[in-house]
Amino acid sequence: MKGKLILENGKVFEGKIFGELADSVGEISFNTGMTGYQEMLTDPAGHGMMMVMTYPMIGNYGINTEDMESDKVQLKALIIKEDAKLPNNFRCEMTLDGFLRQYNVTGFKGIDTRYLTQIIRDNGSMKAIITAEDLTKKEIQERFNSFSNKNAVSEVSCKEKYEIKGEGKRIGVLDLGVKKSTLAYLESQGFNVVVFPYNTKAEEILNENLSALVVSNGPGNPADLTETIEELKKVIGKISVFGEVLGHQVIALALGGKVAKLKYGHRGGYPVRDMAAGKIITTSQNAGYVVVELPEGMEMTHQGVNVKTIEGMKNDDLKVVGVQFMPDLYESPKDVFVNFLKLV
Hints:
This protein is α/β, with parallel strands linked by helices. Helix content is 24%, strand content 34%. It has helices at 37-42, 96-102, 113-123, 137-146, 152-156, 180-188, 202-206, 226-235, 246-254, 331-342, and strands at 2-7, 12-19, 24-31, 49-53, 57-58, 77-79, 82-83, 106-109, 126-131, 162-164, 170-175, 192-197, 212-215, 240-244, 258-274, 279-293, 299-304, 310-315, 320-323. Helix 6 links the parallel strand 11 and strand 12.
C-alpha cells in the first residue's frame, strides 16, 4: 500500500507501507547494524521509536521464535529500503513482513534510507508520521502532539517481582526494560536472579540480601525516572551496583551527574576506548541519552572514539560500575560485566 513518511521538519518521503497496514507516529532515529534486526525490533529500549535501518536490505535470514529480547516487537515502526522476500536460513520460521503483521507494527519501505539517515544526523532525532492519508497541516501537528514516550519504562518493566532460581549468589535486576539475553546470561552463570519492577522501593531491594544489583537498559529519558533515581540513592553504597545504558545514566543522575539527549542517538556498532587496557573495543549500543558530566568521585573507564562521549564510569569505594553500551554481546564489552560479577 502506498504511503508517506512525514518528518517533523516538514520533509516528506513517498514509499510503501508493509507489515501492519496502519498509520503510526513516533520518534525517528536510525540503526547502523547490518544484522540483529530481530533483537533490535524486540529490545524494550526501542519502545516507542521508529527505526531507520541504514543497511539496504533487511530480513535476509528471516525471523525465528528464539532470538526475541522481549515478548513482542517494541518499535512503533520499522523503516527500510527493501525487505527480503525469500529469506534463507535454517532457523527461519517467518518473513519480516509476517513478523510485523503478527505484532501489529507498521513497516515503511522503498525510500533512500541513507539519505533519510543524513537528514536525521544533521537535524537530530524528531517525530515522524507514517500514513496513507492526505493529512492537513493541522492534522499533522495534532498527530505529532499526540505522541509521548514519557511513560515508556513503566510500559515495558515487569509489573511484579519474580525470581529465576539458581544455585549461586543472589543478583538483583532492576527492570527498566531488561533484555531476555541479559537475564539468560546471568542465569547461565548460575546466579539466583531476582527481577524487580522499575519503581521498587530501596527497602524491598535491600531486604532480599543481594550480592549485587544490575540496573538494566530501557527506553526513554532517564530524567523522567525520578522515583527510581531517589530509591537508587538509598541502595548505592550498600551493595554493588552495575548499570547498563539507561541504568548507567540513572545511576549518574542519582549520584549528582548530568545527562543530555544525544542529537540522533547511538544505535548499532560504535567503537569505544577502554581507558585501562588502552585498546579499542567494538560495542553494540541502543541509547538516546548520554552522561555529559560525571558525578563527583567517579572515574571515566571508557570513552567514545568517534565522539568523545563518556562511555563508562566506576567508583571503587561505592562499588558502582556503569557503561553506555550493552556488555553482554561481544567478548571485549562482556569483560566489563564479567569483571564486575567476579567481585560479587
